[in-house]
Amino acid sequence: MDRSSLADFLRRRREALQPADVGLSVGPRRRATGLRREEVAHLTGMSVDYYARLEQARSPQPSVQMLRALARTLRLSDDETDHLHRLAGHAAPDRTGSSPYVRPVLLRVIDQLEDCAAFVVSDLGVVLAQNRLSKLLQGDRGGLTGVEASMTWRWFAHPESRPAPVEDQPEQSRIRAADLRATWSRRPHDADVTAMIDALMATGDEFAEIWARHEVGLRHPTSKRLVHPRVGLLEVDCETMATAEVGQTLVILGAAPGTETYGKLQLLHVLGEQPLGEPAPAATK
After folding, report:
1. Number of Cβ within a 10 Å radius of residue 177
2. Which intervals hold domain HTH cro/C1-type (predicted)?
């Protein structure tokens, strides 16, 4: 492990990124060049102290999982990700895996889709980027690492928090397991895929029973129903599109103007992050 070079590389990559590159707003008093250390730490899911020690060349060797999270936060290219792993004393990752890098143009596209919830998800169910409405609708998925970062794992590990009506959940469970089966078929020896399957097997009988059916890549519905704690039931149109990066999918959830669901999505925009029970902010002209 080359601690000095690793520290210098992380600092330079952090300073080269602008807040807008990772979906952060710029305050009027901001003077820092690039991202702040605490912003990188939050987006990566590590403590500020640990990240500071990485940049100060006095940290223990970071894990492969932590390096992948850092590569995603810092928007590293494949070559930069390989370099990061080697500096930290690990082998470069297998290129059959899913890239954590979301192209800047795609980040701009999802941010411009203000009337829709848009996000980029990996083939293991990890949200790599999401716009504001996606965060309001599904929660902010940044800052999580390991299997806990996967929406697929959360679906089976915490069924009480599923954002779908009970009657729709069996079909959604089949689709998620079938998607993972397709990922396993593409990269059966990948450590992340193996870890995900092992973790899901430990969640209970539901996943194990569905996994044993050996279903692969079931067709995704063009519409789905979601239950949100603030606005209730939503019936959204669902569009999924492959991206330029292998193992990534752009997902767009929306509704036609004039429908009840469209009105509820607009209401979420107005409510923002304010606690339930507080009055909505007054409209501005």
Report:
1. 26
2. 30-81
* Helix %, strand %, coil % of the chain (to 5): 45, 15, 40
Which domains are delineated in the chain?
3-87 (1.10.260.40), 104-271 (3.30.450.180)
Beta-sheet strand order (sheet of 117-122): 127-130, 117-122, 248-254, 232-242, 223-228
Residue type, 145: T
pLDDT for 255 beyond 70: yes
Buried residues in 134-151 as b, exposed as e (16+ CB within 10 A): bbbbbeebbebbbbebbb
Q: Quick one: tokens of 82?
A: 């390989």
- pLDDT tens digits along 205-240: 999 999 999 998 778 889 999 999 999 999 999 999
Distance CA 279, CA 46 (A): 34
